Amino acid sequence: xxxxTQAVQARGQHAVLLQEGHQLGCARPRVTHQVDEHDIxxxxxxxxATDAIQTIGQPARQGVVIGQxxxxxxxxxxxxxxxxxxxxxxxxxxGQPGFFVGGDVVRPxxxxxxxxxxxxxxxxxxxxxxxxxxxxxPKIDVHTFDLKRKMxxxxxxxxxxxxxxxxxxxxxxxxxxxxxxxDRYVISHKELFLGHFPFVSRNRRGIVSLxxxxxxxxxxxRLQPLLEAQAVAEAKRCMSCGQxxxxxxxxxxxxxxxxxxxxxxxxxxxxxxDTDYSKCIGCHICADVCPTGYIQMGLxx
Length: 301
Fold this sequence. Notes:
This protein has helices at about 110-130, 145-155, 210-215, 230-235, 250-255, 285-290, and strands spanning about 15-20, 20-30, 50-55, 260, 275. By secondary structure, the protein is of the alpha+beta class. It has a three-stranded antiparallel beta sheet with strand order 1-2-3, with no helix packed on it. Strands 4-5 form a two-stranded antiparallel ribbon.
């Protein structure tokens, strides 16, 4: 903090200049690069050294950063001329149907970004193999929980809804007791039943403070991790705002026994309770005792 940093692009062998044990700078042979028409992207031909010596700065501290490049051996047709591969929003290689790509070869970024590329590409591969059209993806690709997909994985099927109909709680044409509201708003504290949550102090991570002298040549972590027991305790503080965490309050407190647990054969992730609407009188008690604000009534105020 507070020090000037200068990044210098340099290739070839380097030598550190020392005088009486103190670093004065860095020197390397001055080079010229002979680039021919076959040299593309991040590939470099062997540099040609000259007799001249180039001195780089007089840094107080010097760090060496090793870069990386893509090896396109045997894959030259995918190279966009800049050492990367062009792809669409589904991470299908442009002009190459059936070829999908992800990670730093698209653009250097974080590991989590590469994992996201893989998830989207896997979805595209699945659609491609089933001869389905690849959908246009949103500008910001957000993955949300898909209960219908989970139910299909469980082996449950859906039927078409035909009019006229009265009530769908017994029908397999509708999914009840699930509403993904994450794309619309965040559950506020006013919608939580805070009486369910006793106050629990936050487990804070320790921070090591150093003086300027102590910071020199010190590469130890300054932000200390939580102990395993502390990490578990901190995770338990989560209120699961807007999500059902299977506390059974709605089942226990329903005076009409209208709320019931989904039978094990039909249950899956995100599908824990259901409602018998022939018994429900819209008393709102289930919503009142729901700790997380998951239940919202739709039968008046």
